[in-house]
Specification:
By secondary structure, the protein is α+β, with helices and mostly antiparallel strands. It has 10 helices and 11 strands. The strands form 3 sheets. Strands 1-11-3-9-8 form a 5-stranded antiparallel β-sheet. Strands 2-10-6-7 form a 4-stranded antiparallel β-sheet, with no helix packed on it. The chain has a two-stranded antiparallel ribbon with strand order 4-5. The termini are far apart. Helices cover about 35% and strands about 15% of the residues.
Length: about 325
């Protein structure tokens, strides 16, 4: 038994020694000029078609973008927009016109876009309680929600800055005097609805303080069904982002004019933010995004150019494999 243990120990020491000395059996490919040229050529032939296909899919998406935060402020308040948005006595209703330039096939996705809005700020991102969202008032440790944790000594559900700043602009769409039906169900991730927001957790003491942040929530509807909130609580990593508002289930023809009646409630004027309304179709790749296609084309083109350059250099300066006589120190030794 002792001999077997010694043998195992010796085997382990030998394996460790071989590993530390990088002497274990391994595949050691030799990158000859032919292999390098072939690899770059293969990358070019793969990436360029993929990039072109991706760009075509992106360009097939029809998108209409309308910035409304400035135009929906009355002329008298254009100089002081903050006082306008904070004064509840001033009507916030506004009408915008969006012309369809190309046929849009249903479903048509409705997004609101915010620019210069830093949802990724560390204090903002941390100001929430995931356990409270799931268990409600049964969970008492909501210190992470500071500074929106309590109001009048009572807990706030949902607590935190993210929920407090909920986007609350609303939109209705009219075409030829008929209102387009907007489906606002299933706009949030199913995993979020089922596992992150409680089915028996209802808003409590929410937006009842002196300082109102954004939208209010219906206290009779559980958080798992408050899809506007669920979408908003999934914070964005970039200062310019879009969030899904709903879907239009009807096709829109070219030259259709859509009248958008909106309520301009959300305050982005205090920090120089922008608000935009986006109507967009989708492709098999998703929404409109040219970055992936351009990146693939650039990588593929660069690979092809390098393959051609290396081929020319290899043909001009061909030498036997392993020949080092062309190196400067080899020439000195030969001459000496």
């Amino acid at each position: 038994m002792a001999d077997m243990n010694r043998e195992r120990h010796r085997t382990r020491e030998t394996a460790f020694y071989l590993f530390t000395q990088q002497s274990l059996p391994a595949c050691k490919p030799v990158l000859t000029p032919g292999w390098v040229i072939t690899i770059f050529l293969f990358m070019g032939l793969i990436f360029i078609p993929v990039g072109l296909i991706t760009l075509r899919a992106s360009h097939s998406v029809v998108e209409i973008v309308d910035r409304y935060d400035t135009e929906c402020v009355p002329e008298a308040f254009r100089i002081d927009k903050i006082s306008y948005i904070q004064d509840d006595s001033i009507p916030k209703n506004c009408s915008r016109f969006m012309k369809v330039h190309k046929y849009m096939k249903a479903p048509i996705y409705i997004y609101y876009q915010l620019d210069n809005y830093y949802q990724n700020h560390r204090r903002y991102v941390k100001s929430r309680s995931d356990k409270q969202l799931l268990h409600g008032q049964k969970y008492h440790d909501t210190s992470s929600c500071q500074p929106v944790e309590l109001n009048n000594g009572q807990p706030i559900v949902p607590c935190g800055l993210i929920a407090w700043s909920l986007f609350n602009d609303s939109f209705t769409f009219i075409r030829e005097r008929a209102e387009l039906k907007v489906n606002r169900k299933n706009i949030a991730w199913k995993s979020d609805r089922d596992h992150k927001f409680g089915k028996n957790v209802h808003p409590f003491n929410f937006q009842n303080g002196t300082l109102i942040g954004g939208g209010k929530l219906n206290p009779k509807v559980p958080l798992s069904d408050q899809e506007d909130l669920i979408v908003w609580m999934r914070t964005s990593a970039l200062p310019s982002f879009r969030k899904l508002y709903g879907r239009i289930k009807e096709d829109l023809d070219a030259d259709d004019v859509i009248v958008v009646n909106l309520m301009n409630n959300y305050n982005t004027y205090s920090f120089g933010g922008k608000k935009k309304l986006v109507l967009s179709t989708s492709s098999w790749l998703g929404g409109k995004n040219d970055f992936l296609g351009h990146a693939c084309v650039i990588i593929g083109s660069s690979s092809l150019i390098l393959a051609i350059v290396f081929t020319l250099l290899h043909l001009k300066y061909r030498r036997p494999y392993g020949d080092t006589s062309y190196l400067p120190w080899s020439r000195k030794s030969l001459s000496g």
